[in-house]
Structure formats: C-alpha cells, structure tokens
Amino acid sequence: MARLVLAVMLLLNAAILCSGGITSEFVRLQESAVDMPLHADVFRMPPGYNAPQQVHITQGDHEGRSIIVSWITPSEKGSSTVFYGTSENKLDQHAEGTVTMYKFYTYTSGYIHHCVLTDLKYDRKYFYKVGEGSAARLFWFKTPPEVGPDVPYTFGLIGDLGQTFDSNVTLTHYESNPGGQAVLYVGDLSYADVYPDHDNVRWDTWGRFVERSTAYQPWIWTTGNHEIDYAPEIGEYVPFKPFTHRYHVPHKSSGSGSPFWYSIKRASAYIIVLASYSAFGKYTPQSEWLEQEFPKVNRSETPWLIVLMHSPLYNSYNYHYMEGETMRVMYEPLFVTYKVDVIFAGHVHAYERSYRISNVAYNITDGKCTPTSDLSAPVYITVGDGGNQEGLASSMTEPQPNYSAYREASFGHAIFGIKNRTHAYYNWYRNQDGNAVEADSLWFFNRVWNPREES
Ligand SMILES: *[C@@H]1O[C@H](CO)[C@@H](O)[C@H](O)[C@H]1NC(C)=O
Ligand SMILES: *[C@@H]1O[C@H](CO)[C@@H](O)[C@H](O)[C@H]1NC(C)=O
Ligand SMILES: *[C@@H]1O[C@H](CO)[C@@H](O)[C@H](O)[C@H]1NC(C)=O
Ligand SMILES: *[C@@H]1O[C@H](CO)[C@@H](O)[C@H](O)[C@H]1NC(C)=O
Ligand SMILES: *[C@@H]1O[C@H](CO)[C@@H](O)[C@H](O)[C@H]1NC(C)=O
Ligand SMILES: [Fe+2]
C-alpha cells in the first residue's frame, strides 16, 4: 500500500514537472506596501503661483502624429495654450486647449487642461511649455517613427501602480531602463478610491508622482476597476468621473464612441485597448467596435498586434480568479482568428506569463474545456505588479496549470522591445534590493511573419 502511494506520488510529481511551467522560488521581502505620505518629495507642488502640475501626455491620433498634453492649474484657470517647437529656444508653434473641472462629493478639482498638438513630424524631439510667466514649465517628448513594418520600438509595461514606496521603486526602475519609449499602462492608476470618500486628493498626488515620466513620454491608458469611482453612498453615481476628466485618449480617431476602448498604431505595433469594466457582451458598443476593428489591422503595415486590458483572461493566482472568464468566452475566438501576438493585463498584483494557448474548442456539449497549446493564440502576460498599497498577490493555485509558463509574486515592470517584423525581445524585471533584476525573458516571434513556437 505504502509503495502504491509512493508510486502515485512520483507519478504526480512527474506530471507537475512535465507541465514545464515555472513557479519562481524567489521570495520577496514580505513587508507590506505603504503609501507615501502626503509630504513625500514626489508629491511636491511645482513652485510659482498657479504653476501647472500633473503634466502628462498620450498619443492623440491613430497614427502617432499627434499628442494630447494635459495638466492641472490649482488656483485659477490660467492659460490653456501649449507653446511647442523642435528647438528649446524657439517654441514657434502653439495650440489652444480646453479646460474642465469636476466635483466629487466634497472635493473640487483644479482646472484640468487638455490640449491636442497635431501634424507633428515623425521621429523628432519636441519641446513644449505650459503655464504662464515665471510659473511656466518646459518639457519635451519624442514622436514615434513613421508607422512601418520593420520599425524598432520599445514599450514599457506597468500596471496597478498606486503610490506606495514600492510604486516609486517600480517607476524608478522603469526610468533607469534606457529603452522604454512609451508606456502601455494596463489600468488601476491612483487607488484614490481606497481612501475615505474616494479622497480625490490622491488623484492629484498620483498625477504629481508620475509626472517625471508621463510629461516626457506617452502613457497609453487602460481603465481598471480602481478608475470606476462609483460611490452611491456619497451621491456619486457616474462611473469613471475622475478618470475621464483627468485622462483623455484618442478614441474618436479609431471610430470608438467611448474612451474606454480604442486603438492606436505606433511604429510597427497596432495596439487595441479593451475595457474590462464596460459592457462587452454580444451587441454592446464595445463588442461591435472590436468585431469591426480586427479586420482593419494590416499586418503588412503593423506586424505586431498587442491587446491591453485590465482583468487577465488567464490567471492562476488565488486572486481575482476567473474574473476574466466572461471576456475570454466572448473575445478569445477573435484573438485566435486574428493572431494577436500578446495580451497584457494587470489587476492581479503579481507577475505571470502563459504559453501560447487557447480554450476555444468548447461548445457546451463537446467537453473540450481545457486550454490547449495553440500557435495562433496570444501569449497572456499579467503585470499587475506595480506596487500599490493592496500588497502582493502571493497565493497561487497548485499545481501550476500547464498553460502557465512562469509566475512570481514580486513587484516589477516589463519591456516589450520590437526589433523588426519577426522578432521582439520581452523582459520582465522584478524589484529587488534596489535593483531591477531580469527575472523572465522571451524572444517573441511574430504570429504572422514568423509563427514558430517560442522556446
Ligand atoms: C522616489 O524615487 C526617487 C527616484 O529614485 C527619489 O528621488 C525619491 O526620494 C523617492 N521618494 C520616496 C518618497 O521614496
Ligand atoms: C497593407 O499595408 C501595406 C504596406 O503598407 C500596403 O502596401 C497595402 O496596400 C495595405 N493593404 C491594405 C488592404 O490596405
Ligand atoms: C459541439 O461539438 C460536438 C462534438 O464535436 C458536435 O457533435 C456538436 O454538433 C457541436 N454542437 C454545436 C452546437 O456546434
Ligand atoms: C494540459 O494538460 C491537459 C491534460 O493532460 C491536456 O489536455 C492539455 O492539452 C494540456 N494543455 C497544454 C497547454 O499543454
Ligand atoms: C530581426 O531581428 C532579429 C533579432 O534582432 C534578427 O536576428 C534578425 O536577423 C532580424 N531580421 C532581419 C530581416 O533583419
Ligand atoms: Fe484591478
């Protein structure tokens, strides 16, 4: 009997080994993630009366020749003009923005400015100035190269950042990584909603904290559950109110009627942003848009097809388990049909990468409800490990499912570096002892131009 048990255990062990997935042995120091205090250096207001703060930029059109510049003036409306040009000393162009504000329970926002700079030249460094008189502030950004199939471009990936000391380490590590040219942000920004009455002051502190990156390179926004800010108990019934006032995206240029789902082209990538917290069932606006969107992607022009969403479709942690399942049932057949290269998500505060797998054969009666290896399917990556105050998701389902290639409960960020139409180098960095350590990496082979199996 004992021998039988042993034999069975050995078999089980072998099965686990056969699955090939890795659960990292790395154990991160388990101190809890603590929010930086309001007086922290990263939250400091810029000097000068009514100085613009929380400056951030994002792509402003479908092709990458436009930028939306946003900022907040705290005391009075001031100017919504952006002065810009390709030389620091000659800001010979200007654009007029708009101003908005909102109230949330007892909070009143500052003056929120959004200004679209259009007809920019590709592959240039632009300088821009916002604000007035001695409180004016100068920043710069680089436009992407013209859209084309072999244009190298490097994206950073950050999710669920929040505003803890760990968040600051994640952002510092991303900045110390010389490659990143734009950030694909997979949702959950400030976590203001975890404060009493969704204290919107924490939206402002977050905006000031990330300015050191968001003012200089576009962050491509995805909405997460912490952007919903639905609080009927204090009379706040309009979902996404703070987010939509503060963060604009170019949804109209991809024919989307909503800022929560849209697409952009950037260099050799086509990026589709989806909304986990807006209706996505059959006949909904998001679903209709997505069905029309995929056939428009021309892989000869943009070989790399990337999808962003907040809630992961494949996740083997004991957190938010199967929350992505309804969207998986709806959209996974499209992802496989249109050969999406990779899907990035957040939400689970840890890291995980899947093999190329799909679970699209199931039709309710055929019993084929197991994810199987599928070279037309995307790789699913969860990078909800920015460092927010809810802490790490460290409990995992056991054994590791065979679709999961690598998982680790550490804070960090990732880099997706496109080299040409066939190759992209992907790297996930964990935060460790003051350094960013390469902990998981993979050469991605494009699903249309090089559809081999990645090792
Ligand atoms: C945040 O990180 C920056 C850059 O490393 C550092 O200068 C700053 O002191 C840090 N602030 C806090 C509150 O940790
Ligand atoms: C797809 O892009 C290629 C390269 O830019 C172009 O030659 C071709 O005409 C495009 N196809 C369609 C259907 O637009
Ligand atoms: C489901 O799959 C089974 C087995 O392949 C097949 O016999 C059946 O017709 C399918 N049902 C539907 C509704 O497609
Ligand atoms: C996982 O294992 C099951 C059962 O052995 C198998 O049917 C399935 O194809 C495997 N999936 C992957 C992705 O290897
Ligand atoms: C594409 O990039 C990969 C990785 O850098 C390289 O090995 C390959 O030769 C490149 N392909 C072409 C056609 O240049
Ligand atoms: Fe989330």
Automatic annotation (TrEMBL):
Q: What is its EC number?
A: 3.1.3.2
Q: Which InterPro entries match?
A: Calcineurin-like_PHP (IPR004843), Metallo-depent_PP-like (IPR029052), MPP_PAP (IPR041792), PAPs-like (IPR039331), PAPs_C (IPR025733), PAPs_N (IPR015914), Purple_acid_Pase-like_N (IPR008963)
Q: Which residues form the Purple acid phosphatase C-terminal domain?
A: 377-436
- Keyword annotations for this protein? Glycoprotein, Hydrolase, Iron, Metal-binding, Signal, Zinc
Molecular function, one GO term: metal ion binding
The signal peptide, as residue positions, is: 1-20
SUPFAM superfamilies from the entry? Metallo-dependent phosphatases, Purple acid phosphatase, N-terminal domain
Report which superkingdom the organism of origin falls in: Eukaryota
Coiled coil ranges: none
Q: Where is the Purple acid phosphatase N-terminal domain?
A: 52-143
Domain Calcineurin-like phosphoesterase, by residue range, is 154-351
* A Pfam family that the UniProt record links to this protein: Metallophos_C
Q: Which reaction does it catalyse?
A: a phosphate monoester + H2O = an alcohol + phosphate
Q: Which family does it belong to?
A: Belongs to the metallophosphoesterase superfamily. Purple acid phosphatase family.
Recorded hits in PANTHER family, A to Z, give: ACID PHOSPHATASE RELATED (PTHR22953), PURPLE ACID PHOSPHATASE 10 (PTHR22953:SF86)
Question: What protein does this entry describe?
Answer: Purple acid phosphatase
